[in-house]
Write a structure and sequence with these properties.
It is built from 11 helices and 7 strands. The protein is an alpha/beta fold. It starts with 8 loop residues before the first helix and ends in a 6-residue tail after the last helix.
Length: 369
């Protein structure tokens, strides 16, 4: 473990507007009695102290630094134990305890300022139960401006992918209740797979009821995330590690155990040469958070498992297979309609579709046409 370095302001400005960066700096400089009254008027669910600006620079700087070391093979993999988290922060605003979007900042630095690293494809997996709205929106801009390659998958009590020209894949697994569950919007819906040239680069898997556990997450991993990752073939994987899906978390309403998080991580270690960077996002039970993070660190230290990891699907919710099949059907239909115009996407889709076809029949007994 080592202390972090401050992110440079110009690095933060790759994904955040100068006006927003200055507003955070200014707000943190206000007297204690004024600071949070002012912050509550302009930001959503964010508490600031006089040191929050510097602390947020350290959090982003830590993620940048460890990611560079992993790409340079100075580290096999890494876990960035950072606060504040980042995946809700958008270009022009702080949200949900997040000030600067740590993963988005690090991704932008690697793709736009570290060309000597020769990164071609970055996969972002967000398994927080709250949708990573900020990361999803920022990657749309990144795709349009950098020409690099990103893919995002988000798992929160719903999942998502970014809009862009880049081969950057953003996958989000999260809880989805746009009226009541934070961030209280429809950005994390199942149909949000990107627009224009970015179509297909954002994959949302919204979980629509409580108590998803190890078996449900494993099925989503095996039948959506792993096939997509095989097709995308990333050079580096970021995991926005929200551990609020953990059993015992007061907000997540899920039952993933520390072993469950370990299994999800191990399944991804077969890709990108094991180059994985985990960053902390949500997690509201100190006991569940600490145990889950410890098991995740242990998984990374152990390396790629020698045998295939499975989970007894007897405890899987009845809604999980229909969710998986709906997502696969959306991906096949939407990607199939755009692959002719995008050679890179066609290659990803063709390889991914083969995995969908093979795996869907082994799970539910029915292939999605």
């Amino acid at each position: 473990m080592r202390p972090a370095k401050f992110a440079a302001a110009e690095d933060i400005a790759l994904v955040h507007t100068p006006e927003y960066i200055n507003s955070i700096k200014h707000t943190c400089s206000l007297p204690d009695d004024d600071r949070n009254e002012y912050a509550s008027k302009i930001f959503d669910d964010v508490y600031l102290t006089r040191k929050s600006y510097e602390t947020a620079l350290l959090a982003a700087g830590a993620v940048i630094e460890v990611a560079e070391k992993v790409v340079k093979k100075e580290l096999d993999s890494a876990v960035a134990l950072v606060r504040p988290p980042g995946h809700h922060a958008e270009a022009e605003t702080a949200m949900g305890f997040c000030i600067f979007n740590n993963v988005a900042v690090a991704t932008a630095v690697l793709l736009r300022k570290r060309e000597e690293l020769n990164l071609s494809r970055i996969l972002i997996v967000d398994w927080d139960v709250h949708h990573g709205n900020g990361t999803q929106k920022m990657l749309l801009v990144s795709h349009k401006t950098s020409g690099s390659k990103l893919f995002g998958i988000s798992l929160s009590f719903r999942i998502s992918i970014p809009d862009t020209n880049m081969e950057e894949f953003n996958i989000k697994l999260h809880t989805y209740d746009p009226e009541n569950f934070y961030p209280r919007n429809k950005d994390g819906s199942l149909s949000k797979i990107g627009v224009g040239t970015a179509t297909g680069f954002n994959v949302n898997v919204p979980l629509e009821e409580p108590n998803y556990g190890n078996a449900d997450y494993t099925a989503i991993w095996d039948h959506i995330l792993i096939p997509v990752t095989m097709g995308f073939n990333p050079d580096l994987i970021f995991i926005s590690g929200g551990f609020d899906a953990a059993e015992g978390d007061p907000l997540g309403d899920c039952t993933v155990t520390p072993d469950g998080f370990s299994m999800m991580l191990k399944k991804l270690m077969a890709f990108a040469g094991g180059k994985i960077v985990v960053t902390l996002e949500g997690g509201y039970s100190l006991e569940a958070l600490s145990m889950s993070v410890c098991m995740s660190v242990e998984a990374l230290l152990q390396g790629v498992p020698d045998e295939e990891l499975t989970e007894d699907d007897a405890s899987m919710k009845s809604s999980t297979w229909p969710l998986i099949e709906r997502k696969i059907a959306i991906l096949k239909t939407r990607l199939g309609a755009t692959k002719k115009e995008n050679v890179m996407l066609k290659d990803i889709f063709d390889r991914t579709a083969k995995q969908f076809l093979k795996l869907s029949s082994s799970g539910s007994g029915e292939q999605v046409e």
